[in-house]
Amino acid sequence: MTMIHNEEQTIADWREDDAAAMKWMEFPREVLIGKNMLVKVPDVLNKLKISKKVLLVTGKNTLDVAGNRIKELVEENGGDCEICISEKASPEEVIKITEAGSAFEADCFLGVGSGRSIDLAKLSSKNCSVPFISIPTAASHDGIVSARASIHSEGKSESVEAQAPIAVIADTEIISKAPFRLLAAGCGDVISNYTSVLDWELASRHQNEPFSRSAAMMAYMSADMITNSANLIRPGLDSSARIAVKALVLSGAAMSVAGSSRPASGSEHMFSHALDRIAKKPALHGEQCAVGSIMMMYLHGGDWEKIRNALIQIGAPTSAVEMGIADDEIIEALLQAHTIRPERYTILGGGLTPSAAEKMAVVTKVITD
Ligand SMILES: NC(=O)C1=CN([C@@H]2O[C@H](COP(=O)(O)OP(=O)(O)OC[C@H]3O[C@@H](n4cnc5c(N)ncnc54)[C@H](OP(=O)(O)O)[C@@H]3O)[C@@H](O)[C@H]2O)C=CC1
Ligand SMILES: O=C(CO)COP(=O)(O)O
Ligand SMILES: [Zn+2]
User: Fold this and answer.
1) What is the per-residue pLDDT for 219?
2) For binding Zn(2+), which residues are annotated in this chain's numbering (predicted)?
3) 142 among annotated binding-site residues
4) Are the C-beta atoms of 127 and 81 separated by less than 8 Å?
5) DSSP label of 65
6) CA-261 nearest atom, ligand 2
C-alpha cells in the first residue's frame, strides 16, 4: 500500500495519539446484514428498549419498498409509528423533520431508504436527542453507518456532525432487488476512497492537517474490498448486496473514526457536488464520485485505469455519456470543484485551467475529443 505514510513520516494522529481523546468512534450496537432482516425490526427495538414512539423517515419510493411494512411491524409490536416523507436533504427539511419528531415525542427515528432519508433521520434524531436506526433499501452510498450527514443547499454541500445509528438493519433481499444502478453507484462511492485518501495525505503533508492512519486504512481497505470483488458484483444477487453493504459499513466507520468525511470525500466528491449544482440532470452521487475519482487519480499521477476497469467490470458508468451528462457540464464542474469546499485541501489546489480540465477528461475517456 503506497498511500500510507510510514511511522516516521506520519503526522501525529490527533485522535489516536492524543491521550486526552474522549472518544475514538461511534459505532452501532447491532449491525444486521442478510436476507429477510426487515422482520427483525421489532426485536431490535425491544432489545434496545425504544419501541414506543417511532418516527419513520422515508422517501416516496422506499415507502412502498419497506416503509409501510416496517410501520406494520412496529404497530404489531405495540408501538406507535408516524411516517415522514423526506424531500431534499436540505437545512429546511432537517428543521421540518426535527419539528415532526418533537411534536410526536418520538423516542427513536428510523431512516428507511436512500442516502437522503438516512441523513435526514440521522441529523433530526440528533436534534431531538434520541437514537436512530439505519435501514437502507439500497447499497447506494456509504452514509449507512457514518456519524456524518451531508446537507445540501443553494449549491453548497456540507458534511455535518450528526450521530451514528444505534443499529443498522440491512435486508439484502430488498437491497438486491433495488435497481442495480443503485448498487453499482454504492460501489463507486467506496472505490472513490482511493483518491479521497490520497487527497487527505496530501493535505497532511502540505498543510499539516490532522491525519488518521487507521481511518485512512479503513477507507482504503473498503475500496480494495470492492475492487478485488468487482467480478462478483452482479444484478439480483444476495451475495453482491452483502459484499457492497460490508464495504459501505467499513467506509462509513472510517468517517466516524476520522471525525470528518475526509477519508471518503476528497476532490472527486467536490467534483460530484459541483455537478449537482451545474448539471441539468445530475447522475447518482456514487456514479459521479466514481467518475470524478478516475480523473482525480490521473491528476495524482496514479493508476486511474485500475479504477476505470473496476467500474466497467461492475457495470457502473465511466463517462459523461453513460451518466447522461453533457461534456461541457463535466468541464464546468471540474473548473468549479475547488470552490465547493475551499477549506478542504486537495489535488485540485487553487483550481484547474480549462485546457487542463479538458485534457484530463479526454485522456481518461470521460469525454470524447
Ligand atoms: N452521510 C454520509 O456520510 C453520506 C451521505 N451521502 C449522501 O447521500 C445522498 C446520496 O444517496 P443515494 O442513495 O445515492 O441517492 P438518493 O438519496 O437521492 O436516492 C436515490 C433514489 O433511490 C431510490 N431508492 C432507494 N432504494 C430503493 C429501492 N429499494 N427501490 C427503488 N428505489 C429506491 C430513492 O427513492 P426515494 O425517493 O423513495 O428515497 C431515490 O429516488 C447524497 O445526498 C449524499 O450527499 C452519501 C455518502 C455518504
Ligand atoms: O459522500 C461522502 C462520502 O462518501 C461524504 O459526504 P461529503 O462529500 O458531503 O463530505
Ligand atoms: Zn460519497
Assistant:
1) 98
2) 189, 269, 285
3) yes
4) no
5) I
6) 10
